[in-house]
Amino acid sequence: MRGPAWQRTEMSDSETEVKMSTKPTSKNQDEPFQKRLCSNLFHNIKFFVFCHSLLQLTQLMISGYLKSSISTIEKRFGLSSQTSGLLASFNEVGNTALIVFVSYFGSRVHRPRLIGLGAVLVAMAGLLMSLPHFISEPYRYDHANLGLRQDSTSSLCLLSQAPEQASASASVSTPSNSSCAFHSEAPQMAVVGLMFLAQALLGVGAVPIQPFGISYIDDFAHPNNSPLYLGILFAVTLIGPGVAFGLGGLMLRLYVDIDRMPEGGISLNPKDPRWVGAWWLGFLIAAGAVILTALPYFFFPRNMSKEQQELGFKKRILPSLNDKGENSLIKERTGNFPDKEKDEAAQIAPDLTVIQFVKIFPKVLLRNLRHPIFLLVVLAQVSMSSMVAGMATFLPKFLERQFSVTASYANLLIGSISVPGAILGIITGGVVVHRLHLSSKQCAIVGIVGAFACLILGIPLFFLGCPTHHIANIYGPSTFPENEEFLNCTQLCSCSKSDFNPVCDTSTHTEYITPCQAGCTGFKRGPGPSQDLVIYTNCSCLLSGNRKNLVISGSCESSCSNLVIPFMLLVSVGSAVASLVHTPSFMLILRGVKNEDKSLAIGIQFMLLRILAWMPSPVFHGSAIDTTCIFWASTCGLQSLCRYYDHDLLRHRFIGLQVFFKLSTLFCFILVFSILRQQEKEAACSRSQPDSVLQEEKLALNSEKQSGESTV
């Protein structure tokens, strides 16, 4: 009995040991499966392409959102267009200082982590851009009366009051020394300085994102899949500015102090020229999106195994392209160099130290700048980028001023019409170059046609606009019959020079800066539940024979606001045509430089575009816009933002700058085509000369043979 019992206990112990050993084994098998699942995800180049597309989209949301709210920031902080243009381009300062060294570092660093750190800096820049809202005082749309409530009584004429009351009220209407000290220049400069610092930080953070991302995809993707991945990356990235303008259109409908509304609300609507939208809210949303898209980069490896399989649908759809076109395109780009020489050329940059790289960079720069094709194509891209930079920065403000539309509506038009046109143009240009296998000469022809068509489409924009309506004592007929009486009347009303509360005399379509300037002593609310419309009564200083002596709050409505849609359609078609030139010009650069200089040539190209186009162009456009101002606002004797522009002069100078850059682009592409045609003729002559020599040698041999046969 003991034997079997002992056997049974031994067997039961062994069974329990097996059971105990199997439980942790299954657990250990689950953990590697989870780790393997995560490692497979972060070792997949397709997932990296997906993450990088989202990151570049959100990064462009921050830079694009500033352009969508540039006119609102001008109103909020009293900036001129020149200053706001400098602010919009200041991110290129930090970017330009570091972009060249990206070509040196290449694969020496952990690229995904650097991309993640750069994205964190971009998010911090977005948060810093919104900080001025929280450290500034609430927005007061009635700057003159710093001690009164922001209501309709704050800018009425004081003519009917008693002398002692009028003098007391006049002292209130004129800013006191204490209030001016409160609104001194130092806090304003500190707030604006924070925004400039945020823009510089945005430029520094954006340095590693695109170059390291593109090189990482190119290194570890299948050679035949890499162009497709990069095409997807650029296509998704281009949606970023459209999303930014759409976000601006939504945020600027909200009042700037939505988080700290005054008691009793406000009597403004988005159509009021004093309206300031919630410009800061979009920066918070975009910064949060960048943070979310930056997290995966800290889990990607420094190196991953190269993708082995080509995408199946690409094999089925483009078999002939992969067999013929792509190989010929690669040969044309790389040239007929031996593999050993290519490897040596590719290893030049990794073997250099930082000091050697700094020493060799000026030589490579001069060598590329001496190349006529490279120089002219870069100049053409500089001209085109200058046009795009100025249009992207100030087109919303131009639409607001020229057609009297709200900031939110202008941004929605740009985001829904103009940006999709540019995206369509870039994609179409890439498809044309890819499918037709265009040569360098044909790429130059595409550049000429695109620049010429863009120029032709820009000419009608000179005539699509609205004239400036009459503004009392600022713009209108050279002499009013009642001008002297009007000036005397406004002096008796003790009107503040820094007040701004525009009203409109609808009978003559004349605008007055304040109800006080119109001599209005009373007001009443207009019909409707919103109570936004205010009707000012007993207006004694009107320049016309308005028997009712009534004016309404807000600027006079434009008579040709419906022209904004045809204007935007022409701008959209022009941007689509101009974007066709993007890919052909890029191919001209790749084919025009030596194989070992391509990486640095691309870095030099981006550096020159930033220095010569993206940095100065917004400042040039802003300065041109400032020269068309006819009335500058002033606070405590300091000039701030422009209240009114000469619309015709604004349109002519803004569109004129665009036409100038288009002409420069066309001229550069014509020179490129001429040089390529001359090089083609010289190459044909050099090929025909050896053929003629060979024919002469054959004739000489034949004659010798004939003479030998005759002697025999």
Automatic annotation (TrEMBL):
<keyword id="KW-1015">Disulfide bond</keyword>
<dbReference type="GO" id="GO:0043252">
    <property type="term" value="P:sodium-independent organic anion transport"/>
</dbReference>
<keyword id="KW-0472">Membrane</keyword>
<feature type="transmembrane region" description="Helical">
    <location>
        <begin position="654"/>
        <end position="676"/>
    </location>
</feature>
<dbReference type="GO" id="GO:0016324">
    <property type="term" value="C:apical plasma membrane"/>
</dbReference>
<feature type="region of interest" description="Disordered">
    <location>
        <begin position="1"/>
        <end position="31"/>
    </location>
</feature>
<feature type="transmembrane region" description="Helical">
    <location>
        <begin position="445"/>
        <end position="464"/>
    </location>
</feature>
<dbReference type="InterPro" id="IPR004156">
    <property type="entry name" value="OATP"/>
</dbReference>
<dbReference type="InterPro" id="IPR036259">
    <property type="entry name" value="MFS_trans_sf"/>
</dbReference>
<dbReference type="GO" id="GO:0016323">
    <property type="term" value="C:basolateral plasma membrane"/>
</dbReference>
<protein>
    <recommendedName>
        <fullName>Solute carrier organic anion transporter family member</fullName>
    </recommendedName>
</protein>
<keyword id="KW-0812">Transmembrane</keyword>
<dbReference type="GO" id="GO:0006811">
    <property type="term" value="P:monoatomic ion transport"/>
</dbReference>
<feature type="transmembrane region" description="Helical">
    <location>
        <begin position="563"/>
        <end position="590"/>
    </location>
</feature>
<comment type="similarity">
    <text>Belongs to the organo anion transporter (TC 2.A.60) family.</text>
</comment>
<feature type="transmembrane region" description="Helical">
    <location>
        <begin position="186"/>
        <end position="207"/>
    </location>
</feature>
<feature type="transmembrane region" description="Helical">
    <location>
        <begin position="276"/>
        <end position="300"/>
    </location>
</feature>
<feature type="transmembrane region" description="Helical">
    <location>
        <begin position="373"/>
        <end position="395"/>
    </location>
</feature>
<keyword id="KW-0406">Ion transport</keyword>
<feature type="transmembrane region" description="Helical">
    <location>
        <begin position="228"/>
        <end position="256"/>
    </location>
</feature>
<dbReference type="GO" id="GO:0015347">
    <property type="term" value="F:sodium-independent organic anion transmembrane transporter activity"/>
</dbReference>
<dbReference type="Pfam" id="PF03137">
    <property type="entry name" value="OATP"/>
</dbReference>
<keyword id="KW-0813">Transport</keyword>
<keyword id="KW-1003">Cell membrane</keyword>
<keyword id="KW-1133">Transmembrane helix</keyword>
<feature type="transmembrane region" description="Helical">
    <location>
        <begin position="114"/>
        <end position="135"/>
    </location>
</feature>
<dbReference type="GO" id="GO:0015125">
    <property type="term" value="F:bile acid transmembrane transporter activity"/>
</dbReference>
<dbReference type="InterPro" id="IPR002350">
    <property type="entry name" value="Kazal_dom"/>
</dbReference>
<feature type="domain" description="Kazal-like">
    <location>
        <begin position="483"/>
        <end position="543"/>
    </location>
</feature>
<feature type="transmembrane region" description="Helical">
    <location>
        <begin position="407"/>
        <end position="433"/>
    </location>
</feature>
